């Protein structure tokens, strides 16, 4: 995922969060989330796995799991209402986005193994 411009997805997601666009969509519930994802998809020119895998990792911290819509809405509502305590390991959306802001994408990209050059076919 790092090789697939993962940092650009993160930057766009942070921008949508900081502008209030994402939170406004979540306030509208499931239909707001769906509408936001559709617009986000178009702005990034991504769809399917190339959109949802990075979103899932950035928002949920997992590669696999239940549906994103219901999960992100639950995270949003639980964090907003304060119903889940930090003692149980609950991380609010605000905390998740603060974590994303602290990531050093350049360092992560440098830690990735570089592709080996193709072997020469000449003898």
UniProtKB/TrEMBL annotation:
Q: Might you report a single GO cellular component term?
A: mitochondrion
- Give one Pfam family: Anticodon_2
The family database entries (Gene3D superfamilies) matched by this protein are listed as: 1.10.10.350
One GO MF term on file is:
tRNA binding
User: Superkingdom of this entry's organism?
Assistant: Eukaryota
This protein's record includes keyword Nucleotide-binding: yes
Q: Which GO terms describe its biological process?
A: glutamyl-tRNA aminoacylation
Q: Which InterPro entries match?
A: aa-tRNA-synth_I_cd-bd (IPR045462), aa-tRNA-synth_I_codon-bd_sub2 (IPR020751), aa_tRNA-synth_I_cd-bd_sf (IPR008925), GluQ/Sye (IPR049940)
Keyword Nucleotide-binding assigned to the entry: answer is: yes
Domain Aminoacyl-tRNA synthetase class I anticodon-binding per the UniProt entry, residue ranges: 32-75
Q: Which UniProt keywords apply?
A: Aminoacyl-tRNA synthetase, ATP-binding, Ligase, Nucleotide-binding, Protein biosynthesis
Task: Identify the PANTHER family for this entry.
Answer: GLUTAMATE--TRNA LIGASE, GLUTAMATE--TRNA LIGASE, MITOCHONDRIAL-RELATED
Q: Which protein family is it in?
A: Belongs to the class-I aminoacyl-tRNA synthetase family. Glutamate--tRNA ligase type 1 subfamily.
This one is known as Glutamate--tRNA ligase, chloroplastic/mitochondrial-like
